Predict the structure of C-type lectin domain-containing protein 88.
Amino acid sequence: MQFIFFGTLFSGLLLVCAVTNDIEDASGETPGIVSQITEEQPHQRQKLYNWDYKDLGTIAFEDIPFPTLQPSQTIDQSENCPEGWIRYSDSCYWVETELLGFAKAERKCSEKQSTLFVANSIDEWEAIRGHSKDSFSSWIGLVRFSHYERSEQLPRWQTEGAVNPSKINWLIKPYSPLVNGWSQLANCAASYKSPASLETASYTYFYPCTYLFYSICERNSTIANSLH
Ligand SMILES: *[C@@H]1O[C@H](CO)[C@@H](O)[C@H](O)[C@H]1NC(C)=O
């Protein structure tokens, strides 16, 4: 009985696939247009970010396509941040509590017109990492790419003007990549927030970028509005 059921289901799936293929074939130009958009879009990202889709395509990352850029509106957060966001200076921050790999976390921020959290001062770093969820690690916008390993000792923040990464709370100080978990397969930095009673036990460490963590997004109005 079960066997027959699965048999029917399977041929049903085959039929669906066949129909879908027919539709795609019939739609002529569409696939061409789609690939054109996905090829152009990373180029626009390069102006703003310290890394782009080519870096994200290395083995330690998931190679996922980015959404098409929305026609962006001017962001005015001089008064308030959107509901659920945290405010610090001219930036708004979103604590993402869906468990995501680094590349998906970055994309999720991008969909909210934000980047992963980049600290422009140690005060900002302390204030914002303190809002991430207790006893969890959260992705931040800090990566040491294997292909820059020879030329760069320090990891790269996602946007310009950030603090010297060696000054933040690495697990092992003074900072060096290897003692803090970095390897060819562990490029992405995450901030671990210890429970409040053990605050000094919070730290930053490198992990494989495919690990599933929380994440912190930052929408810096200066950066967001420099896009247009
Ligand atoms: C926002 O970005 C600008 C330009 O990089 C920077 O000077 C400023 O410190 C940032 N503000 C915050 C709160 O991150």
